[in-house]
Amino acid sequence: MSKIIPVFIPHAGCPHQCIFCNQRTISGQKESGINAAREQIEKYAVWTKLSAGNELAFYGGSFTALPFEFQEELLKLAMEYRIKGLIGKIRVSTRPDYINSPVLALLKQYGVKTVELGAQSLDDSVLAKAERGHTGAQVAEAVKLLKAEGFIVGMQFMVGLPAQDWSSVKKTLQQAIELRPDIARIYPLLVVRGTALAKSYAEGEYKPLTIEEAVEQSFYLYEGLTQAGVKVIRIGLQPDKELCQEGNILAGPFHPSFGELVKSYGYKIVVQKQIDALPGGAYEITITHPPKLASIVRGMHKANVKAWEADGKVKIKFKEGQEFQTNIVCLAGQNTI
């Protein structure tokens, strides 16, 4: 199985710190020099099988905003491990306002295939409030340049940003679909220790989303992007030991299985719509699903099942099959719907 070897370069290249960001807390990586990068790769190299399918990914900073010489130094380091056969692909994460022709020429020279942009939102008022330092138009221009050069384009989005409401989320989704990235990530905003947002939260100026609100908004983005052909490769932050260390997350919709909650919510509303459309009477609904989706369809601690059966109108049964589908039987007349 192919592996992603993450190399965190916290805040390296970032021209300033966004209000929600403390990559040293999120990643657990304190240093961002070449020796620190090599140490991280070596840690994974010990137990990772050589494979051209493995990918080395530079995360946590703005790679293309680094001094040009340091970018090349890191890429040369990646190439060492490519020559050794540990990896076959390289990806970088960066800011949309640091994408230009010279930078892209360097990335292509060293075989970088994927570039992920930390867009977070495409609403200029939300971006300004988050002190991102770039605009939605700059995101669009970056995507255009990357696509023209043949890169796989990723975009990262957040829900729960200051000044971000449902209208803003919908606007961002529509614009994102028009840009047609190849892959996307969706994160709920958390209040992390050591950030400007932590101060705003402590002073009562910022109110984070609840878990339920974050799940609903994340699903809206997930469903819209997926239907548009964009592969969502991550929903929610990785619940690693550094992030989850006591005192690091001060507030916000954190859940170690946030992505599962979001996908489970999708099945919940699909079945609930069918239940709401049923005329009066008692019904039995048999839900067929692939085995690997059992817990997601049922919901965490069977939350979906409890919601569907809450008013006593239906009784839920399950069976395994190749794809998700429902069969509804009216218990009074045994009519199948």
Please characterize this protein's 3D structure.
There is one protein chain. With 337 residues, this protein is of the alpha/beta class. The chain has 2 domains: 4-256, TIM Barrel, CATH 3.20.20; 277-336. The protein has helices at residues 23-27, 34-45, 68-84, 101-109, 124-129, 136-148, 166-179, 196-202, 211-227, 258-276, 294-298, 303-308, and strands spanning 4-8, 55-59, 89-94, 112-120, 152-159, 183-188, 191-192, 231-235, 249-251, 283-289, 314-320, 325-330, 335-336. The strands form 3 sheets. A 7-stranded parallel β-sheet has the order 1-2-3-4-5-6-8. Strands 11-10-12-13 form a 4-stranded mixed β-sheet, with no helix packed on it. Helix 9 packs across helix 10.
Per the CATH scheme, the topology name of the largest domain is: TIM Barrel
What is the H level of CATH, i.e. the homologous superfamily of the largest domain? Aldolase class I
Q: How many structurally independent domains? A: 2
Task: Please tell me how large the radius of gyration is.
Answer: 22 Å
What is the number of E strands? 13
CATH architecture of the largest domain: Alpha-Beta Barrel
How are the strands of the largest sheet arranged? 1-2-3-4-5-6-8
What distinguishing features does this structure have?
337 residues, alpha/beta, TIM Barrel, 2 domains, 7-stranded parallel sheet, 4-stranded mixed sheet, 13 strands
Write a brief structural summary.
With 337 residues, this protein is α/β, with parallel strands linked by helices.
